[in-house]
Amino acid sequence: MATTNLVGTVVPTEEQSQQIDAALDTAVGVLSTFCVPLSEGDRGEFLRPRSGAEKLMPLVFEVATEKKLDIDGMPLEGLESDLKVGVKADRFEKRLEVMRQLAADTRLAAYGEAYQAFLAYYGVLASMAKHDPALAKRLQPVVDFMSTGPRARKAKP
Predict the structure, then answer these.
(1) Burial class of residue 109 in the structure, from the number of CB atoms within 10 Å of its CB (0-12 exposed, 13-18 middle, 19+ buried)
(2) pLDDT band for position 75 (cuts 50, 70, 90)
(3) Is the predicted pLDDT of residue 4 greater than 90, yes or no?
(4) Does residue 102 fall inside a structural domain?
(5) Which of 25, 32, 120, 157 has its CA 20 to 30 Å from the CA of residue 39?
(6) DSSP secondary-structure letter at 98?
(7) Which are the contacts of 114, defined by CB distance < 8 A and separation ≥ 6?
(8) DSSP per residue over 7-73, as a string?
(9) Is residue 137 part of a domain?
(10) How many CA atoms lie within 13 A of 31 on its CB side?
(11) Which pTM value belongs to this model?
């Protein structure tokens, strides 16, 4: 059985892992200074801009400012601030999505490759355990896990 080895040839050291964790913790701390966590209920309350509206919002702000419009409860400064934060958050979100996908792809490849090796080694060890009671006892948790039949797939959220 040929194995494709996409991951595992470069394993991050514990120090590198700690540095990445610290950098991510720092990034979360910085984002928390202007980002707003919303509950599921809160997320459902906000208007969803029509696709492409974010590109036209600055024009409306500019023209409304030129015309010296003032709508009670909706100051132009609030529109300007919200636009600035939205643009920056959008940029950060896109970069974070690239990082999230990179981590998810790496996790998928690593666990997939590890499981392929696990199955190969388990097969050999299970055969050996037929002639070695101590080995059979030690492998019993794996045998129990593997003998429970097909796993039901989890429903996608």
Answers:
(1) middle
(2) very high
(3) no
(4) yes
(5) 25
(6) H
(7) 8
(8) SSSSPPPHHHHHHHHHHHHHHHHHHTTT-----HHHHHHS--PPTTHHHHHHHHHHHHHHTT--BTT
(9) yes
(10) 16
(11) 0.73
